[in-house]
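Class prep. Sample record?

___
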Amino acid sequence: MNTFNISQVFSDAWKTYTSNFWLLLGAQVVLGIIYLLVLFVMGIGIFLSGGGVEGLTNLNTLSTNGDPEAALAMLTTVGPWMVIGFIGFTLVSSYLSLGLLKMYLKTVRGDQAGISDIFKVSKKEFGSYLLASILVFIISFVAFALVGVVAALLGMILPALVALGVIAGVVLFLLIIVRFAFYMHLIVDKGEAWYQSLKASNTLAKPHFWNVLGVFVLVGIIAVVTSLVLALIPIPGLHFIFVTPLLTLFVVAMYVQLVDGKTTASQEVLNVKEEVEDEVIAVEEA
C-alpha cells in the first residue's frame, strides 16, 4: 500500500499549477468559450421554439394575467427544448471534463501536455464515464431513499430519532464521495470499464479514507474562501479561470500519489531542475 502525504499532495499541486500556469489558463479560457457557445445555442433554440419575442411577451402576459393553463401550454412547447439543451450541455461538459483530466494528469506527472488533449477522449472512455456516473447516481438515490424511509419510520416512533437518520445520511454521503472519488480518473488513466472503475476507485480510496476526506475538506474550504474573496472583484469568471484549475489539481495530485507513489513525476522533474540550477550557481561562484 502506497504511503500518503497530504502536504506533499498540496505541494505537488501548487508547483504543477505555477509551472504550467499559462497552459492551465488557456485551457480554462477555451472551456469557457465552448460553454458559452453551447449555452448560446441552447438559448437560441429555446427562444425560437417559444415563438421568439412574441412568444416571450405572450408568456409574460399570460403569467401576469393569471392564466396558468395558457402559460403551462406555452411552457409545454418550450419545455422539451430545455430538456434537450440540458442533456446536450451535460454531454459536452462531460466530454470536456474527461479531456481536461487527461491534460491535468500529464502535467502532474511532468509529461508533455497541451490544450489539444482536451479533445482526445475516446468513445470507450466517454461511454464508460457516462455509464459509471449513471450507476453512481442510482446507487446514491437508492441509498438516500432508504435512509429517508428509515428516518421517517424512526420519527414515527420517537421524533428525536430522526437525528439518527440525518447522521446516517451524512455518513452515507461521505462514503459515496470518498469511495467513488477516482472512478473518472481510472477510466481516463487506466482505461477501466465503467463497472470496474467504481470497484477500483473503492479499492484505491478505502485504505486512505480519512486522508482523502481530509483533502476534500481542505479543498472545499479553499474553494469557499477564494469564492468570497473574488466575489469582491466585479469581474465574472475569475474563480473559474484562476482557482478551479488549482482545486482540480489538488484532487489529481492526490490520485497520482495513491497510484504512482509518494512523489509525483512532476515533483521529481522540478527537484532535478532545482538541483541542476544549484550546481550551475555553485560552478559560477567557483
